[in-house]
Amino acid sequence: MTPSPALQRLGASLRVSNSCSQRVLSATVPTPWRPVISVSLSAAEIPTTTTTVSQTRWSSHAPMGPVSSQQTRKPITISTLRNMYKKNEPIAMLTAHDFPSAYVADSAGMDMVLVGDSLAMVALGMNDTNAVTLDDMVLHCKSVTRAVRSAFVVGDLPMGSYEVSPQQAVQSSIRLVKEAHVQAVKFEGGVDFAPTIKAVTTAGIPVVAHIGLTPQRQNALGGFRAQGKSVAGALKLLEDAYAVQEAGAFMVVLEAIPAEIAAIITKQLRIPTIGIGAGDGCSGQVLVQIDMTGNFPTGRHLPKFVKKYANVWEESKRGIEQYRDEVKNRSYPAKEHTYAIDEEHVAEFQRLVDEQSAKKSQE
């Protein structure tokens, strides 16, 4: 049997391998996408030309392709962060909750990526952070660390995963490090949680402390309210800051604190402070990515300290609406979005289908 010209061209572009009485054509694509196309043919149908094809294709469900900035940046370590602090270089931190959000944060040059428990609201649709579980955090931290190549990744310990005892905090922190591959953990609390910080750091896990507005304790604080707005309140914050520093935290987040108070506290410490609603006197800043990229509908409440740097929601909505319209009017997919096939194959396929239909109609 003489193979058709189309089949000869197909055979010339694939690697031919023998398998028992049949020969199998297989084409492989480099990682991370490695489908194997196998076609069983009789020996007579297979041309003798053998060629290996090597080409990279990214499918819609595969991890994203490489980004040049990720390849050139050196990984940021705790020593890197300490050197930045010594040189008075501001530290840029941003939250991420999944592979795409972490990928873009790392590619944009973030020094630190925080997998914050705020994902309870921005990723899981919960009303506050208190409902998110340690299992939730492990899952999301895993997806983030798969994407990040350079930034220093910190994972939040959620409510209920560290308050019972220092030993509980150590066990929870070990899970985030061993299973989710974060480089440090963050949890809320000042003086009262100094023994917990000491226990976790003694276990060899770096800790980022969090004082000021502590969202997990919003019910005790009377809601999401700024802290340190009185002399007594400011002194309590300074006491908390000293306590977490002496307990071994290598960094502390200051949330919703008057800028002047945060600046004074920052000057009194030997560790970096990361502000969120705490002014520009801190050693660095952190924002929730969903907030600062504008990935939310008009009318959503934003904290006073958030600056909207983009309008991801509107751009995404515009694109999705255009896609919907093109599906409805059949302008998508166009010819350039489809895979080519020889007309003779189409004709032969149609002939066989017609034959089968004719036989079924006669039965």
UniProtKB/TrEMBL annotation:
Keyword check for Nucleotide-binding: no
Molecular functions per Gene Ontology: 3-methyl-2-oxobutanoate hydroxymethyltransferase activity; magnesium ion binding; methyltransferase activity
Gene3D superfamilies named in the record: Phosphoenolpyruvate-binding domains (3.20.20.60)
EC number in record: 2.1.2.11
Catalytic activity: (6R)-5,10-methylene-5,6,7,8-tetrahydrofolate + 3-methyl-2-oxobutanoate + H2O = 2-dehydropantoate + (6S)-5,6,7,8-tetrahydrofolate
Keyword Oxidoreductase: no
GO biological process entries: methylation; pantothenate biosynthetic process
HAMAP family: PanB
Family: Belongs to the PanB family.
Protein name: 3-methyl-2-oxobutanoate hydroxymethyltransferase
Organism from which the protein derives: Talaromyces pinophilus
Classification lineage: Eukaryota, Fungi, Dikarya, Ascomycota, Pezizomycotina
